[in-house]
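Quick start: what a row looks like.
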Amino acid sequence: MEVVFLGTGTSQGIPVIGCGCDVCLSDDEKDKRLRTSVLVKTGGINILIDVSPDFRRQMLDNNEDNVDVILLTHEHNDHIIGMDDIRPINFKYEKNIPVYGMGRVLEQVRQKFHYAFSDSVYPGAPKLNCVEIEAGKSFWLNESLEIVPLLVFHAGLPVLGFRIHDFVYITDASHLPEETISAVTGVDVLVINALQRTKHFSHFNLEEALEMIRLLHPSRAFLTHMSHQMGKHTTISDDLPGHVEPAFDKMRLKI
């Protein structure tokens, strides 16, 4: 399995428009964080988790040109609004792409991209097949690859994380219920959000993310969905235990 970190930043991305902080002005490419998304490549299947506003650029920057399946964590714009840029993949590979998400999330996709789901579909619209899933109920791709949707909370909003083999991806979380903790404890690789160093109402901060990593004790952990308030990549790295790293855009992780 290979995980490609397409984006590791927040809803504003980094650099933030108009910001003059050291992170936003940094020349280090690892400090330039597009909106959060990963591409998981396993068993001949390319699985995209979330479709950020930067999706087109992310695919080009990483020399990737194919997505077989889309998994959606939740309906916020920084996680779904790049959906229209799926079209070149539809055209090149002559296929519709299944989009898996909770019912309310798929309803938002249908509303925001209504022209792809109307009775008289515009010929150039993205070709998407919505598939409703529920937290805690596994489903299979190609009858060989199990995907486990995980319930997490983004403040009071139920959102999904995902477990694929021994890889777990959680973003935009501020709380994990006991059933999710039980389902992911001891995994090989955990990716989890750490928005900033101070307390936030809907995201883990750095201290909380590290505490969650301690509780789940994965072999390796990577931080994502990091704002400019987290500091530069090198500074974050210096503040982490040895088995934890800040992820960065274009990072490729072999599992």
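That is the whole record. The first strand starts at residue 2 and ends at 7. Residues 2-248 form a domain with the Metallo-beta-lactamase; Chain A fold (CATH 3.60.15.10).
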